[in-house]
What we know:
- The structure holds two protein chains of two kinds.
- By secondary structure, chain A is of the alpha/beta class.
- Chain A has one domain (3-161): DsrEFH-like (Hypothetical Protein Ychn, Chain: A), CATH 3.40.1260.
- Chain A is 41% helix and 12% strand.
- In chain A, strands 3-2-1-4 form a four-stranded parallel beta sheet, sandwiched between helices.
- In chain A, strand 1, helix 1 and strand 2 (37-42) form a beta-alpha-beta unit.
- In chain A, helix 1 (18-33) packs parallel to helix 5 (105-114).
- The longest helix of chain A has 16 residues, at 18-33.
- Chain A starts with 7 loop residues before the first strand and ends with a strand.
- By secondary structure, chain B is α+β, with helices and mostly antiparallel strands.
- Chain B has a four-stranded mixed beta sheet with strand order 1-2-4-3, covered by helices on one side.
- In chain B, a hairpin with a 2-residue loop joins strand 3 and strand 4 (67-73).
- The longest helix of chain B is centred in the first third of the chain and has 12 residues, at 16-27.
- The mean pLDDT of chain B is 94.
- At the A-B interface, helix 1 of A face helix 1 and helix 2 of B.
Amino acid sequence: MAEAEKEKLTIVVFSGELDKALAAFIIATTGASMGMDVTMFFTFWGLNILKKNETRMGGKGFKQKMFSLLNKGGTKRLKLSHFHMFGLGTWMMKLVMKDSHYPSIDEFITMAKEMGVKLIPCSTTCGMFGLTEGSFRSGVEGIAGAAYFLGEARKAKLTLFI
Amino acid sequence: MKADATLDCVGLYCPMPIVKAAQKIKEMKPGEVLEVLADDKGIKLDMPAWCQTTGNECLAIEENGGEIKVYVRKTQK
């Protein structure tokens, strides 16, 4: 498909749970495989998917620092939305995925990047939570606002909110 | 059916067979046929949909026991 006639798919990733993140990246990578131009816009808890695993404490002032301590994020810390069971359910889910040779969320993110999927953190939530470009894993493109997302979404045939 | 290339996706779940087939088709020449081996039943509906969206041709889907063979001709530019 020629660049000019590429269909567009935009996804708002609001949730920061492992299962919902997987669903978002499965659809994003499939869309890219189907020749679509895919943009993922990460906001609120969805930002946790993109945060570096190593980050300890960030932000300015007591409130942001406390928040970043309680809401560390990173792919290693993602939980299932159901059956987390103090980590047991999530651990089992990861084992089941491994047994089925299913890609991990990290592998999905790398795959999405290789396929040209754009990963955009939301500027407002970044501002509130005290996050900067440095808070995120590599491959994340410029922080943008709702107008950028709507600018992309209005050109897209498909927009999902996960 | 004769194929120019074969892609083994047995044991892989959605979307991996489609993602891998898309990568493989990219490397192939127009007119060539790719054979995809899979056991994820989703491919029976996924591959025709992928072909329709990308402008390739889904030639045949054969199911033998648990194994599914899908043939795709590269027709996209």
